[in-house]
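Trying the structure run again after the queue cleared.
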Amino acid sequence: MTDHAKPRHDQSDAALDGIISERRRLIGLAYRLLGSLAEAEDAVQETYTRWYAMSRQRQDAIESPGAWLTTVATRVCLDLLGSARVRRERYTGEWIPEPLPGQTGWISGRPGTAATDPVDPADRVTLDESVSMAFLVALESMTPAQRVALILHDVFGYPFAEIAGITGRTPAACREQASSARRRVRASLHPAAHQAGLVRDFKQAWHAQDINALVKLLAPGATFTADGGGVVAAALHPIEGGEEIARYLTDLAGRASGGLTVLEHTVNGRAGLVVEHEGVAVAVYAFDVADDRITHIWAVRNPDKLRPWTAG
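Done. Tokens:
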């Protein structure tokens, strides 16, 4: 091998490593946009397929492969969001984003950058907030354009000029989309303080089938939403009111068959519960709290959405 050939080989390896290293960030972006890890993985796979379909000359001509991958992944997600809305309208019962186990560190934001557009830091969505179930559910009420603008700017730190190039809109339009989305999502986010203790108390009261204890833990206007996807039994419509939820859950516990175990677990970065049957996850419960009361419970029972909880 000649002396001048080796640096080119090293540069090629470094470039390949750089392309592959973008995958985690791209999945984090796609998961936030789509609310489904499975769909996020498909979107990122499609992005890499398009990259490797290009000739080496075209790849070398791209100044920032990471920016190219982000642009393509975002556009793939925008296409998927259009079809996903139709599928979710036909979904049996309520559709809840796919819950993820453990911490959220693997779903990192844009490394080493921050959005240059002026936004009060107090209004910016943090990484942990941006994968909480409350945040993901709030995104479902937004248009795809609002969702993309908010996540790329507030979470991943892209300036609106770059977002405009990705989405084909003007920077001013992207700024307005993010502002509208921010107003919506801020009303849905609450600090996670004391959530672990409330979830632990909830678990104990549920196990004891103590209606009064459950009522005290639930806000009067609390909401319980279940997602069985038509595959397993689940409430087809949200249950409203602390007393109604307490009675429903107590009845559910009374009718449950043996072999069930309820475990405390981190769900999308916050305290939650996992229900297992003979070691297999059959339900994941995510919570939101405000003023030391549980305000929302999301129960995911659709086995297609529990793959990350049963793998390995």
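Residues 34 and 275 are 25 Å apart (CA to CA). Worth checking whether this holds up in the mutant runs.
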